[in-house]
Amino acid sequence: MFLGGVTFMLFYHAARREWKVIRINTELRWYLGFLLFFCSAATWLLWSDGAYGFFDSLRYGTFQVVSLLTTTGFTTTDYELWPQAAQMLLVVVCFVGACAGSTTSGIKVVHYVLIWKFGVAAIKRIFFRPMAVVTVSLNQRPVEPQIVDLAVCYFIVNIFLVLGGGCFMVLVDQMDYLTAMSSVIAALMNIGPGFGRVGPSENFAFISDAGKWFLAWNMLVGRLEMFSALVVFYPSFWRR
Question: Packing angle between helix 177-188 and helix 209-223, nearest 10 degrees?
Fold first, then answer.
């Protein structure tokens, strides 16, 4: 299932036996690192709390992390019965997503890679080498500043959409903040199940028509990589 989170271009390069392209792909390495970290953390949290035995913790934790990370939407257990730390880990996973150019939704790993490298480069430039020109690289190639700005903007807009959408759902349906925020996260990131009244053992049936239309719009925004859906609100877009 985790292969669904890999960009299609890497499958093309694999079919052509271009292994070097796959080996130097920065996003793939980070994606596999995220998988290993989150699956290991979920397994340890479940096992240390005594929720399951070790192998069941590995099975349930790994499956749920991969399902949320790849926005597959499957569940094999009610994770709202898990320890709070394990649930918090799943909330973090919901914000990550998988690789750009794959079948997944979410913020995508490549944006986190660019933001992290931009932050590291900024710290180096400010505190250690003020006169140096520090570039951000991806796949062993420098990335244009406009691309980095776009990644930062994409992340910030996602966060504001979640916060603003959660407030809207509370006002429209008078639901608790956990359910409101989780419903927007589940829709915007195309996760599927969420937390609270939209958890793995619940559904979205109780939400009003206005709330469902709003969540459906969030799903469209998340699936169309956001800017493609948001650009229609710019008057200049229609004048061209």
Answer: 40
Per-residue tens of pLDDT for the chain, all 240 residues: 667 678 888 888 888 888 888 898 998 999 999 999 999 999 999 999 999 999 999 999 999 999 999 988 889 899 999 999 999 999 999 999 888 888 888 888 999 999 999 998 888 888 877 777 778 888 888 888 888 988 998 899 899 999 999 999 999 998 999 999 999 999 999 888 899 999 998 889 999 999 999 999 999 888 876 777 777 777 776 776
Contact 117, 139 (CB under 8 A): no
* C-alpha torsion 28→107→92→199, nearest 10: -120
The pTM for the full model equals 0.88
**What does the alpha-carbon distance between residue 182 and residue 165 come to, in Å, rounded to a whole number?**
10
Compute the C-alpha angle 169/174/175, nearest 5°: 75
Three-state DSSP class for 142?
A: strand
* Domain residue ranges of the chain, discontinuous segments joined by +: 2-94
